[in-house]
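Feature request disguised as a bug: please show the residue count (156) next to Transcription elongation factor in the output. Example input:
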Amino acid sequence: MGNDYSTIKKELLKVLVARTEERIAMIDAALETARDSSNDDTKSSAGDKYETSREMIQQDINRYQKQLLEANKDLQQLAAISSMLDENNEHARLGSLVQTNAGFYFIAVSVGALKIGDTGVFVISPVSPIGQILLGKKRRDTFVFNKNEQHIISIY
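Example output, currently without the count:
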């Protein structure tokens, strides 16, 4: 892939939205299954064994609800990035694709390494340690992460 960084950002966003929507669908299905189990268990419960079972199911439901909330927040954050995709990025911020001598970072949601065409990109959250370091930085700035000095080549 050439140096069309706008296309890379759009592709990254498309992949991230699809993954997040898929994650939401999977959590919804697991939540529905857990709720069904809870309803079935309530109908036939008698004794301590069933209380323990119901409590475990409730813990599952609570965990899925928390995961769903986080996934929906990620989706909202991706929508916010999408609305400002073509804005000029002088300083690194949410939605920035930051090119350093060590590689590319896309400040969005925490996903990890992705490959768009031939370009490897670390997709990071703005609240992650590297995200916190990058926010507000500009072209030619230098920073240290994991004891490695990196230089910002460009911000898209």
